[in-house]
Design brief:
The complex is a heterodimer. By secondary structure, chain A is of the alpha/beta class. Chain A has 27 helices and 39 strands. In chain A, helix 21 links the parallel strand 32 and strand 33. In chain B, strands 2-3-4-8 form a 4-stranded antiparallel β-sheet, with no helix packed on it. A 3-stranded antiparallel β-sheet of chain B has the order 1-10-9. The relative contact order of chain B is 0.26. Classes of the chains: A alpha/beta, B mainly beta. The interface between A and B is large, with 47 and 50 residues. The complex binds flavin-adenine dinucleotide, iron/sulfur cluster (2 copies) and FE2/S2 (inorganic) cluster (FES).
Chain lengths: ~800, ~110
Amino acid sequence: MKKKLVVIGAGMASGRALEHLLEADKDAYDITLFNAEPRGNYNRIMLSPVLSGDKTYEEIVTHDANWYEENGVTCRFGEHVVKIDRERKIVVGQNGEVAYDKLLMATGSAPFIIPVPGKDLPGVIAYRDLDDTNTMIEATQKPGAKAVVIGGGLLGLEAAAGLKARGMDVTVLHLMGHLMERQLDEAAGYLLRRALEDKGIEVKCQASTAAILGEDKVEAVLLQDKTTIPADLVVMAVGIRPETRLANDAAIEVERGITVDDAMRTSDPDILAVGECVEHRQQLFGLVAPLYDQAKVVAATLLEEDAVFAPKEVSTKLKVTGCDLFSAGDFAEGEGREDIVFRDPSRGVYKRLVIENNVIVGAVMYGDTADGNWFFGLIKDKTDISDMRDTLIFGPAFQGGEPLDPLQAVAALPDDAEICGCNGVCKSQIVDAVKAGATDLGAVRAQTKASASCGTCTGLVEQLMAVTLGDDFQMPAAQSVCGCTDLTHEDVRRLIKSKELKSQAAVWQELGWNTPNGCHVCRPAVNYYLLADWPVEYQDDPQSRFVNERKHANIQKDGTYSVVPRMWGGMTTPDELRAIADAADKYNVPTVHVTGGQRIDLLGVKGEDLPAIWKDLNDAGMVSGHAYAKGLRTVKTCVGKDHCRFGTQDSTGLGIKLENKLWGSWSPHKVKLAVSGCPRNCAEATCKDIGVVCVDSGYQVGVAGAAGMDVKETERLMDCETEEETIEVATAFMQLYRENAKYLDRPYKWVAKVGLDWVKEQIVENVENRIALVERFELSQSIYQKDPWAELAAPDEAPKFGPLANLTLEAAE
Amino acid sequence: MSWIDIGSIEDIPLRGARVVKTKVGCVAVFRTSENEVFATSDRCPHKNGPLSEGIVHGQSVTCPLHNWVFDLNTGVAQGADEGQIDTYPAKVEAGRILLDGTLLMNRAA
Ligand SMILES: Cc1cc2nc3c(=O)[nH]c(=O)nc-3n(C[C@H](O)[C@H](O)[C@H](O)COP(=O)(O)OP(=O)(O)OC[C@H]3O[C@@H](n4cnc5c(N)ncnc54)[C@H](O)[C@@H]3O)c2cc1C
Ligand code: SF4
Ligand code: SF4
Ligand code: FES
């Protein structure tokens, strides 16, 4: 008599196992196949093409009614198995019992639903089976319907692309910093995001869902940061969990999945398991390739043959048209690993190989994945790559191929990219001039005016000449930002503006950085350039700042910090002094010092005390003095005409107004101001970055002074008649400096490069431009003029200054 | 090894670090842009700079005081500088950061 085999779950794994079994021995078993879904086996991974409309359900069915009949499989579709009775060797379905000799569990996974309020509202679904797919297709029928997809992994993005293809407004919410973070690194994640945004899909990273809102159906999603996004449909694609409930109830051994041995047997030798529901040697499975290997082993074991399942490396591709990505192996974690990075900004290509002991252990690529399988082969076979290391990244076709071209980022610029911002000259004008015979910089300057004003675009103009003229052009050696790039600071600034690069990942990719995310030299500079040029779009990254600016206090050589509250224009009150004295006592501040900028410096504060001392000073009405910042430090004043017999104007009052206007803005380097009430200059205004000297007829504004390693007198920018005009000119200068200077150049260094005449042109002569500069400064201030102390002393931020854990305490318990 | 849970990966900013107090002194726990974690001594061998306050890039950290760069895998100083920091086993499981307590914790009474 034939033995009885019962299979629970007609999914991709069990379908394949049955094929192998029936092929090997058609008559070994009487087979009963249960499936909770009201249909038989189909190709689940092709649901995405069904969703996008590229395929129909009929096209993705793998086993039809005929097949089951020909092979004598009894189908119980649309019927849940509710219990396994191991003693009686019986499976209990909703419509009755079936006896087994061997049982195969292939229950797959259950989508993970994040436990937020509103998760059960109609219109909130997962993405797992045909019914989910049909619900989505139906939702797209309503004109103007909006979908929110929670989860920016493989499934979520395929759902988003499919919904978009059917005309829905789609927003993807992703908890992590970049998309598909398990398969992609940041650079590839950026390119993927850009491709999806080009399709019109909105992507929000680091978006944590707080609740799903709605009365009797879903209406919106509420994020932790309080934004709400309207939605008619919410698709949760945040992960899967092995479906182990039946196995658990039957007391079969389960860890995260149903544990199986190398022959795919569970802890009960008559029960086998296959697919996503299993756990094999602590490993779970989420892609079909290893499941197909398992299916072979299952068939062999059922026929009492020896077979062993050994998991192999898996690779990932995303089934979204226009998003060409490949990822395999392990490109994170581990000791002594080395990266090879290749970027071609013109084609939007990124490739990264991770190498350990001369073997490739991981590969990520975006944009050009033609070599993916070749690399995948090298990973699986653990091929020693030492001989081809230098050209490895170019793939099999390029073994011995060309080296990287540092000029490719410039060559890739579109014709209308603005190269010279001062004179509005774009790439094609320069290239045309060069082609028409302007073969040196002077000639290009004369003909196009490019680099004829402030000169910061000179490097780019030269690179364009090199690209156009080839070997005929001798490039002068320019200093690149750091080892991560061949571009200079000026090039990077210009390109961030002309290519509208608004994130760090965009800069790394579009400008061809050769490291994954920069280094301590370029990252703070790029972070500054981005926040100065795109105050609204770019979000400041504290982790790209030096410690002083991240902790908002100066680190001292012993690792303690100094705290300097703002004293507007150098003025203080008895109450403020008392509060400072109290804080100094309370936090055992060892040193109290009066600075050269007319402030009081509390030195030697412990890192974990910072939020508390800030709060005390805030409570007394004081804010951060930004003594640590590349930004406005102090405005030093003399007492002026209220008290001094020589005073011509209210120098203290003007100093306070200037400080009120300019504080809080970040700049390429620190900026110090002073206002003196008469030319006797008690506030030393003539050696400051911006210094105002009051005279009877008004205000003399000087800029670009210095009193550090270099000592230099200010140069007269303009004589102003009123306080208002003085403030306007000083503000415009600050903004011009913010927008154009190289990171870590003080104003005097920058002005020496661009020339005072150019600065005058921008601010004194062109009044319209002056006003525009002030407006841009004010826009930036609307975001950046805030007291960092108050933000960081808030109850949910302050604990971050303390240790994450204290293991010395736990032991004492 | 005895793995102990010291907190959620979300408690450390991306490309940042936090400190854990242990019997061998302050240990810096880093989170890279790829969400890997590394644990090392918090003290720079040059002049005791607090490495947890440095800039994290790739799998390296730059000391905030004088810019020595250390590989977080091996603890070895990069480039011309010579020195090494202690490294400790660390891993992330289900979003939780685990450190090896045998090295770091006083023996429980
Ligand atoms: C939209 C989508 C796209 C995907 N794309 C890819 C891809 O590109 N590449 C890739 O490798 N993988 C992809 N996957 C993953 C792949 O589909 C799964 O790895 C594979 O389907 C798992 O097979 P399985 O047989 O273990 O489970 P499933 O195919 O899920 O089958 C399990 C079946 O068991 C049934 N069942 C569960 N419990 C019971 C019960 N108590 N009684 C009766 N029946 C029950 C379920 O209804 C289900 O039909 C994708 C998945 C989805 C959803
Ligand atoms: S600068 Fe002139 S106004 Fe000011 S304190 Fe000195 S002498 Fe008096
Ligand atoms: S002058 Fe030199 S020693 Fe004095 S505070 Fe400035 S940097 Fe330090
Ligand atoms: S203390 Fe770390 S580099 Fe000097």
